[in-house]
């Protein structure tokens, strides 16, 4: 049976590395836990690192965070849907917003719950996902500052997640200037300038964060040690806090070329025949996991002596060549994962999750 393993000490090492980085630069940060899809075992591991602020895009996950430790500050990191307003106010201490209509609903619900709900207003800085356009920002803040039961605590932006627009010193200066303009215009303090996610970490390391930007939401680099500017691992961090273990459920020497009339498989893929392989054989192994759980392109296959031949809903087939490693049925093959692959595994109810 396939299973996912979280290495506690490697995660702690990455946390310590980042905590030192943020502390020496006088920056606040919180952990983004949406990768874990509400898995309580893994959420507890993150909270136990010492985080006092957890960010997530699923309100049910924040509900679980509050059940584990009610004192942890929770933040809902996408504009809330109308049908989620009650739960957002119940389980998120803070949310990121771009619509006056939504903030008005949050204000009304916070009043019903006798709460003050905190909000960060997201600004569009080029990636064209969520964010208020800059030339509308003053009018927007003028309206939301008047809402009862809403405390506007910050301004923020998100980059790289949709079109791949990278953060830069200029874009973060722009964000910091917006904050200063709003404070001067309304004589109100904006405590948080939330400069982005893991993709901004190289800027922090290179001392390129402008004065005023003081808050970040970090997930991928915490769990994978990722430098998202150049797709490498940051020196001194672990890229294997999570590993997927799969079991070989069949090994057989078979022809390299399928036989019979060809059509598209259930995924819509038509196999192209390499006629030079006719008559050749190799050992093929079947792993007990499939595209229902992970797309094989998200498995990191560096330095392995086999290649992925293909996959179906519940099985991945690999070509072992001559099987010089003498693998056999029942053996485990472990993989490091890309972020989106880990996300699929963590969203699967069929894969056991463990901690070591």
From TrEMBL:
GO MF annotation list: alanine racemase activity; pyridoxal phosphate binding
Coiled coil: none
GO cellular component labels: cytosol
Keywords assigned: Isomerase, Pyridoxal phosphate
Boundaries of every Alanine racemase N-terminal domain copy: 9-225
Cofactor: pyridoxal 5'-phosphate
Pfam families, alphabetized: Ala_racemase_N (PF01168)
Protein name (database record): Alanine racemase
Source organism of this protein record: Marivirga lumbricoides
Gene that this sequence comes from: orr
